Amino acid sequence: MKQASRTWFITGASKGVGQKLVTRLLEQGHRVAATSRTAASLTQAFGAESDRFLPLEVDLTNDGSVRQAIEKTVQWFGVLDVVVNNAGYAQQGTVEALSDDEVRSNFEVNFFAPMAVVRHALPQLRRQRSGHIINLSSIVGFQGGYAGWGSYVASKFALSGLTESLAAEVAELGIRATVVYPGPVRTDFLSNGALAVAKRQIDDYAEAKASLDLHLDTLHGHQAGDPDKLALLIIQAASVESAPLHLFAGKIANELAAAKASAVSRDLEAWRRSSEATDFAE
Which parts of the chain are coiled coil (predicted)? Predict the structure, then answer.
């Protein structure tokens, strides 16, 4: 059965998963407001604005720019059904090497920008008593044991945690929230132009250096995840009544999530008696 047409707001829509998502949604007859740093990149990819497509040039790190984009979307389409926070970038570098500016810039895009989108979208969703917020995290936002990726991991954990809290907060309003944890996806995400590498390197951290080399020299271009299929999975999750709060995407993501759950369970059981001994004795 064909799904009813809905209005989607998608950040980071000019390339990668965001571009695939917009393409599929327009093919299926949905209405899409798409954001990018330049409107030209959007019109080049999807054509001029129309009654089903609204290209928006947005600075996601500017609260006013985000607010105006949401307001224009509601004015253009009259409704807002699904919000997808897709924009983000990877920052590589050991915790000791990363500068304060590098960490804060990573969080500005990966966490504070989605937070702003959600904050400005919620009044419209609350008035409607409906809507679905989908935040693109990463498997590293659930299983974070990757040397040299502390800033990126932390920003994605923050986004995942925000989504869990948000889901509890808005459920009574008829609004749903989902956090997506993709494994490695075959886009330009790890290309030299997209991946931020710490300006300062510390030779002592061999594991972090090996991890960077692996991602640049071996993984880039050979990621298992298909961005088009990931886009279809997101659409599927948004179309069902019982949408998942946690949506893992890809075999690698599933395996890593299961391994993390198992490791947490082992630690929980091994330390249960000592842990519970910290409570007051009643």
Answer: none
Q: Is 57 exposed, middle or buried (0-12, 13-18, 19+ CB in 10 A)?
A: middle
Domains with residue ranges and CATH for the chain: 7-89+101-189+224-269 (3.40.50.720)
98, 125, 181, 232 from 176: Cα distances, Å:
36, 10, 17, 18
**What distance in Å separates the CA atoms of residue 133 and residue 176, rounded to the nearest whole number?**
6
Contact residues for 183 (Cβ-Cβ < 8 A; gap 6+): 139, 223, 224, 225, 248, 249, 250, 251, 252, 253, 254, 256
Q: Which two tokens stand for residue 205?
A: 């951290």
The residues that are catalytic are: 14, 137, 152, 156
| pTM (predicted TM-score) | 0.93
Cα 93 to Cα 102: distance, rounded to the nearest angstrom: 9
Beta bridge partners of 179: 135, 246
Query: Could you give the CA distance from residue 103 to residue 90 in angstroms, rounded to a whole number?
Result: 11
Q: Is the pLDDT of residue 159 over 60?
A: yes
More confident residue, 219 or 166: 166
- Amino acid 264 reads V
CA distance linking residue 27 with residue 10, whole number of Å: 15
Angle, CA of 110, 114 and 119, to the nearest 5°: 150
Q: Give 238's Cβ-side CA count (13 Å radius).
A: 28
